[in-house]
Design a protein that fits this description.
CATH architecture: 3 Solenoid
Number of strands: 2
CATH superfamily: E3 ubiquitin-protein ligase SopA
Structural class: mainly alpha
Distance between the termini: 20 Å
CATH topology: Pectate Lyase C-like
Length: 112
Amino acid sequence: MAPRIIDDPLYQLLRHEQIEEFNEQRKDLNSLDFSNCDFRGLDLRDMNADGVDFSGAYFRGADLRGINFRHTRLQGASMAAAQISGCYFPDDVSAAEIELSVTRGTRLRTDR
């Protein structure tokens, strides 16, 4: 499946790297569906990722440093060449899976 770009206003804020605005507008939302969406090459540092479904998302070359992904869905996401220093990942994603995704572009496999 090709990565998709959707019309969702919150997604568009991320596409334009307006992270503070995104965090402010989504603060009362418990979940967001950004599955299979395109985040390639974006600077997403400081994004509030709680409750976001990133399953199948493309993060190739994105700057994800410091993001807390502990309460997100990452099944099938690709993080090829992404910057992930300081990130937290869900307990069901092994370090080996993360390393393979960043270095080889494989899709993350989780236990969920």
